[in-house]
Amino acid sequence: MSTASSMNVPGYEQVVGCQDPASGLRAIIAIHDTTLGPALGGCRMYAYDGEEQALDDVLRLSRGMTYKSAMAELPFGGGKGVIIGSPREHKSEKLLKTFGRFVDSLDGRYITAEDMGTSAADMEIIRTQTRHVAGLPERSGDPSSATAWGVFQGIRAAVRHVFGWESLEGLTVAIQGVGNVGGHLADTLSLAGARLIVTDINEDAAHEVSSRTFARAVAPDDIFDTDADVFAPCAMGAVLNDETIPRFSVRIVAGPANNQLAEDRHADSLIDRDILYTPDYVINAGGIINIHYEKPAYDRQAAFAHVAGIYDTLVDLFRRAKAEGVSPLLMADCMAEERLAVARHDGLTREKIAAVG
Ligand SMILES: NC(=O)c1ccc[n+]([C@@H]2O[C@H](COP(=O)([O-])OP(=O)(O)OC[C@H]3O[C@@H](n4cnc5c(N)ncnc54)[C@H](O)[C@@H]3O)[C@@H](O)[C@H]2O)c1
Predict the structure, then answer these.
(1) pLDDT at residue number 352
(2) Best mutation site among 284, 292, 304, 310 for ligand 1, i.e. most ligand atoms within 8 A of its Cβ?
(3) 205: Cβ below 6 Å to ligand 1?
(4) Partner of 128 at 20 to 30 A CA spacing, among 15, 120, 217, 318?
(5) CA of 110 to the centre of ligand 1 (A)
(6) What would the pLDDT profile of 139-162 be if each residue is shown by its tens digit?
(7) Domains within the chain, CATH numbers bracketed
(8) Are strands 77-84 and 25-33 parallel, antiparallel or unpaired?
(9) Ligand 1 in contact with 200 (CB < 6 A)?
(10) How much is the pTM?
(11) What is the C-alpha separation between 332 and 35, in angstroms, rounded?
(12) How many helices (H) and strands (E) does the chain have?
């Protein structure tokens, strides 16, 4: 028998532990904040070392989604789902359908989507049980090109802040990971006249990108020591840490990877090295912005125009961070909180946002 147990977590609207022995589902859905709208956030499946680790992840990620939507001026709140288990060994149609029924039981307060360990095909299965699923292939589809477009705009904003000009012509960008987002980003940067250094643990991917963009390919560990102006992390998280930060000669870190800082204190380590850090949840919002434009019929032009606004958001963020003498990450958190506080104060509820279109 399926059981949903409520967990009381201060600062979070609703956290639900989902259990279903028949399908083997063990999952947690966290709704951090719905001030701006329904809580949107992907469903991650991962072989966590137990429930405590899964809970930490879902709480951190759902809060990040609240801030991401607030900074991107979207009518979404922040939420996330995590399924405990190895996607390769434990995923089944029955398990995904059961997760879909738990999502449905939240009546649209949580909207799920693809994330690490889940695929578009999995979302099609979940969708048989609930309509609260976003980013399906026949709607906005793969968000990577929108995410890369936002990262490109973010790099432009960072270059303007650090160097005082807008052109990327002749600047060198080191890209770690040339998968879905990194590959699109390499193409866009190359067209803008940037010189590229790329790496990937998948040598074929690195080779393919370097041959079409004239990038120099280096070994994965060498990417931190390259003589570049910008480092764009497009692979995994925690890549900015005590080991890597002292090795950088770049002036800017700007890329889509989630949770780039191993710990928040590394935002200050980057300041100490005079490296401008572009907060990940601001620069990588292109994908979620794209989802916003999927209904009633996907409007790619409007989506990409909104994504381009990441440039203005970051120009403003860097200026304010500098004026206050704080890290861009702290300033981004403050600006997101500020937007939520204004919305709460004005009673700018999701119904009112919907009413104004
Ligand atoms: N896809 C999106 O729209 C989107 C949106 C927001 C954030 N992100 C984040 O951006 C990052 C990239 O996403 P993606 O969709 O391009 O993923 P992806 O899996 O398509 O690409 C990641 C690439 O990084 C490579 N890689 C992994 N570890 C590496 C390492 N140690 N050194 C070098 N290369 C390594 C992989 O081989 C792969 O080619 C992820 O952190 C993701 O969470 C993606």
Answers:
(1) 52
(2) 284
(3) yes
(4) 15
(5) 25
(6) 888 899 999 999 999 999 999 999
(7) 3-126 (3.40.50.10860), 144-339 (3.40.50.720)
(8) antiparallel
(9) yes
(10) 0.91
(11) 18
(12) 14, 13
Q: Is 14 in the pocket of ligand 1 (CB under 6 A)?
A: no
Examine the pLDDT at 132 and tell me if it is beyond 60: yes
Q: Identify the pLDDT of residue 356.
A: 45
Please give the distance, rounded to the nearest whole angstrom, from the Cα atom of residue 182 to the centre of ligand 1. 7
Is the CB of 199 inside a 6 Å radius of any atom of ligand 1?
A: yes
The ligand 1 atom nearest the CA atom of 147: 3
Q: How far is CA 332 from CA 56, 65, 110, 355, in A?
A: 21, 13, 24, 28
The Å distance, Cα 257 to ligand 1 centre, comes to 6
**Look-up of token digits 């690195």:** 206
Dihedral sign computed on CA atoms, order 152, 158, 160, 162: negative
Specify the pLDDT at position 166.
Answer: 84
The answer to whether the CB of 135 is under 6 A from ligand 1 is no
pLDDT in tens, 89-126: 999 999 999 999 999 999 999 999 999 899 989 999 99
**Around 179, how many Cα atoms within 13 Å sit in the side-chain half-sphere?**
14
Calculate how far, in angstroms, residue 318's C-alpha sits from the geometric centre of ligand 1: 25
Residue 108 region, left (φ>0) first, then alpha (ψ -120 to 50), else beta?
left
**pLDDT above 70 for 351:** no
